[in-house]
Amino acid sequence: IRYTVMDKQKPAEQLLRFLTERPHEAGIVYALSRKRVESVAEDLSQAGVSSAAYHAGLSDQERKRVQDDFQRDDIRVVVATVAFGMGIDKSNVRFVVHYDIPKNIESYYQETGRAGRDGLAADALLLLGYGDIAIARGLLEKGGNMDRKRIELQKLNTMVSFAESRTCRRQVLLSYFGEKRIEPCGNCDICLHPPEMIDVTEAARKALSCVYRVGQRFGIGHVIEVLRGSQNKRLLDLGHDRLSTYGIGKEESKDFWSTVIRTLIHKEYLFQDLANYSVLTLTPAARPLLQGEENFEMARPRLRPKSDKQKKAVRKKIVASLEYDQELFERLRQLRKRLADQEKVPPFVIFSDASLVEIAATVPENEMEFLMISGVGQYKLKRYGEVFLREINAG
């Protein structure tokens, strides 16, 4: 599994881009609320992606239908809450996307582990949104049991630390569960593309100053509008176009300022009061930064996974060290689906993706060679050998 974390900016577009690059792969998208699940599933369906929502609020009959359709490859993407996956035995899940940050590493590890069970390459993508972190913390703060609240907050902080880590993702995960890995995995976003840290001290000071100048009575959106010199009527009515911080950040994008401010919130230079319209206020930690006693760095935002020759080379190596005929693989996959529909079984019951990859790589010409494929025994040779060999030779 390749672990990747991206900064969450226009997540609907990020998700659709990710899926567009995997037009034939099946996977799961996890979101934390039922409302979010249904919204994402509807957006994907409108974009032409075969998808369905799954959460505890649906009827037993509907949940079973979604599970069965996913098993049979009739649905490519299931958008779900954490309620989905416990009873699923589908080996060819090629990706798991976390649209929202999970509440703890245990959940994240379990959910990403539903991808790539056939041993082939799989992706685990996490969209890291600092607004989501603030909301999650706010919900946990409302809990009544102090001990439980402390533990859950600590787990959330550990999850955030994993997402922000600048060392091998797999090393961090294994370390959390008490295992050690001496060498980096070489197959996560950090190993493949080490994050670039950028000094944004001046931008951070501008943001903090702007929060102070607007009276510490407004949220992120308004602060960004002041920084970028917006002509918003409400802003003008408030006289905020006359502030010293008005327009001092107009050279940067909204996304840039959003990332800076949310990083300041996460690193506790700013406090976002979710119970009070998400108003921003300065914390005591902001003073030394404003007074020039500290510098401020953040990782350059990652808005999409890298897709270059290095990544493709690694992916080929992972796929059983085989380079295979992708056109033949797709024909075999379609044949498997037709047979599965006839027999009313999930496609992987006939052959796993790993077996199809090996067939497409070695291109067996007769029954003896077909029998050498991993996952092919005498029973499957007798049942499916002739029809698959016919498809292979048809090319």
Polypeptide structure, described:
The structure is a single chain. The longest helix is centred in the middle third of the chain and has 19 residues, at 146-164. Helices cover 49% and strands 11% of the residues. It has 19 helices and 10 strands. Mean pLDDT is 86; it is low at 308-321. It has 395 residues and is an alpha/beta fold.
Radius of gyration: 25 Å
Strand numbers in spatial order across the main sheet: 1-6-5-2-4-3
Number of helices: 19
Secondary-structure content class: alpha/beta
Short description:
The chain has helices at 11-20, 34-46, 60-71, 105-112, 130-141, 146-164, 169-176, 189-192, 201-213, 220-227, 233-237, 254-266, 286-290, 309-318, 326-343, 347-350, 353-362, 367-371, 378-394; strands at 2-7, 26-30, 51-54, 77-80, 93-98, 123-128, 197-199, 270-273, 279-282, 297-299. By secondary structure, it is α/β, with parallel strands linked by helices.
